[in-house]
Amino acid sequence: MARIRNIWRIDPFSLRVRLTVGIAAVSALGLSSVAIWTIWQMQQILIGSHKRYVEEIAQRLPRDAEIYSEMFSVATGIQKAIDNLANSQTFLWVISPDGINRAKSVNLNAMDTTAIALLSLRQVPASPQVFAINHRYFVMCARTLRVNGKSWGQLFIAQDISDEQTMFLAVVQSLGVTSLLILMAITVAIALYIQRSLQPLMQINQLAAKVSAADLGQAKLQCDRAPTEVRELARTYNMMLERLAAAWEQQEQFVSNVSHELRTPLTIVYGYLQSVLRRETNLTTTQRDALETAASEADRTIRLLQDLLDLARADSGHLHFHIEAVPLNALVAEVAGMAQQYSNREIAIEANDEIIVLADRHRLKQVLLNLIDNAVKYSDFSLPITLKLDQLEQARIQVCDRGVGIPLQQQARIFERFYRVDESRATSGYGLGLSIVKTLVDGMGGCVTVASRLGEGSVFTITLPIAV
């Protein structure tokens, strides 16, 4: 059902809608042109035959009147010629120059409204034309009637075509409805055909939305039956993914190698600095401060390299977890004690029941230390940091501080690598701590989120599966 809704979802700016509307408009123009031409031709055939018939009567009646006038008077001859040519659908009458009705066909004797309207007409063209009178249709013309070289007035001829015109209008209406239905069917067929033709483009879009750094090498788009242009696009897209996968692999390898190669000598340097600080008693204050600063920076650089190494291992799938049942209350108490000792901050724990979680003890401890360290950096020294433990369907750990908070528009990015909310108030670090937290929590089958308000503090929430 979701796929059907997506197919028929209308986006006025999409290529599918634009092509459908464009082709449907051209089809409508062509279909309407054919329909109009067909209607015109039908009209010409229908009206043309009646016009010719009326024209023939207009030419024949004077000759017939002259023949009858040889045996009768001219007036009688005209009447007999009219009676001979009139029928139920043909009306003839003669009006003298002074407006007197000299002769008329028998079917005009029934003085209904139509007959009265016909007899009252005066302005009728010489060439046959269609007139609408009292919801009826007539082909009419008027000619000067000359018999034996003398003018006897105006001859009016009217051919009733109401039945044919009604049938013609019904045919036109049916043709219009049929054309509309055909146009709708064509539009639907065009939409489905374009939808099918653009399916490879939709696959490219869906694949691009799902591709991540971890599966660059495996992501491939297959469009063997697609149009040539789409196949070329898919081939170019696959080549781009291959280049990105190679570049990403080289970057991961570089970061891993550099982190590994630099960590060992820096660890040695840090060890020697600590040894000198512990054993030498004749150092001046300046020398001791310099050595302590060097040792602190070396330690910070070692931790940075360890974070980079962990991220590189996670990207390559080589970051392993030892998942076991871990007593969460005891672990949190241990971490809180460690953090309170090195930060000299008050760290409170709120917990009721004993909670056992499935996690990697060492990695979970690293996660909590990172979050507590983050809370220490961005909250006032006099304010406590609270660790809350509870469980519903999963175990939940909350690290709460009452610090500066995080802007809402930046909360979605704080777990990105090297991202720092505000460089001007950042105290230390390289923006890897929260990225490490998310990587480790995800690796243990959990989830980490943040809720924060400026000036009120932040709450980082970790959910982990419970050991059954």
Give a short overview.
55% of the residues lie in helices and 17% in strands. By secondary structure, the chain is of the alpha+beta class. Helix 2 (15-69) runs antiparallel to helix 5, helix 7 (228-279) runs antiparallel to helix 8 (285-316) and helix 9 crosses helix 10.
Describe this structure in words.
It is a single chain. This protein has helices at 2-8, 15-69, 74-85, 113-119, 162-197, 199-210, 228-279, 285-316, 328-343, 361-377, 433-443, and strands at residues 90-95, 101-104, 129-133, 136-147, 150-160, 324-327, 347-350, 356-359, 385-391, 395-401, 447-453, 457-464. With 468 residues, the protein is an alpha+beta fold. The chain folds into three domains: 27-170, 2-Layer Sandwich (Beta-Lactamase), CATH 3.30.450; 228-316, Signal transduction histidine kinase, dimerisation/phosphotransfer (DHp) domain (Helix Hairpins); 324-464, Histidine kinase-like ATPase, C-terminal domain (Heat Shock Protein 90). Helix 9 (328-343) packs across helix 10. The longest helix is centred in the first third of the chain and has 55 residues, at 15-69. The model is unreliable at 1-5 (pLDDT under 50). This is histidine kinase. Keywords: Kinase, Membrane, Phosphoprotein, Transferase, Transmembrane, Transmembrane helix, Two-component regulatory system.
